Amino acid sequence: MAEHRQARVLANLSDESRGALLALELEGHPDLVLKGGRYIIVHTGLENAEGKIVKRAYSLFAVKPGTQKFFLAAAPVAAGVASHYLGSLQEGDRLTFTGPWGRFHWPAEAREKKVVAAAFGSGITGILGYLASVPADCAVDLYWYKDEQGLLPAAMVRECLSEAHAMHERSLSDDPLRDLQNAGPEQRFVAAGEGHRIERCLNFLRAKGLIEDQLQSEIFYRSQDLSDAKADRG
Ligand SMILES: Cc1cc2nc3c(=O)[nH]c(=O)nc-3n(C[C@H](O)[C@H](O)[C@H](O)COP(=O)(O)OP(=O)(O)OC[C@H]3O[C@@H](n4cnc5c(N)ncnc54)[C@H](O)[C@@H]3O)c2cc1C
Question: Could you write out the DSSP letters of every residue in 38-105?
């Protein structure tokens, strides 16, 4: 069984976010290397209708190098358990989790000099974590598809990016394929967030000649209102 770890809440910055926004510090485990792009499984301690403890994945982002401090953000989900649990935590509370897990980072063998990143809604957390792993000589275009406010304040997103990274804010209803019209096989594509939108982008890029090794994604959830047919219309 995976080891349970704890992090202490340093601050709950929910008032700066449309959802939950937590600054955390790992307790113990000084040798554990935390990296953006990986995720942890949060154990809420709360039971669902079947009496099982609710556990959910959340991406680490804005990990401060050389420290055990990191941020988590969760979009508010109507009737969701974990997203509201995270929003309720206060300074000094403890968060129990397993991990970190995952391989959503720049692969050692990658040679592209350009990355196009698409963050759909809450996927901005995973994308910020990923972009922290991209080599400094690689150009980055980040497209952030979000509702009006966005899960994170735009200023915080910019702070997590390097100056060489270009950020393009979009509405969630915008068609991401418009931004991918000029994509070509010389670039890498990464995406995080809602699954139907991500898959639509991946299919479009496969048709443009990108191979599987150049396509990386982290699906957070699948919107039930966004059938493939609706996603095809944007
Ligand atoms: C690898 C990974 C990393 C993740 N990282 C993050 C993260 O950093 N931040 C984050 O907010 N979420 C993240 N998620 C999603 C997260 O794990 C939860 O699914 C989400 O917070 C909802 O949990 P809940 O218990 O509140 O609601 P649930 O009871 O799990 O969900 C209720 C319903 O809402 C849908 N749903 C889930 N998320 C959303 C959403 N954002 N918008 C609309 N509908 C949604 C679910 O598909 C489900 O149908 C990640 C998921 C994965 C797999």
Answer: -EEEEEEEEE-TTSPEEEEEEE-BSPPTTSSEEEEEE---TT-SHHHHHHH--TT-EEEEEEEE---S
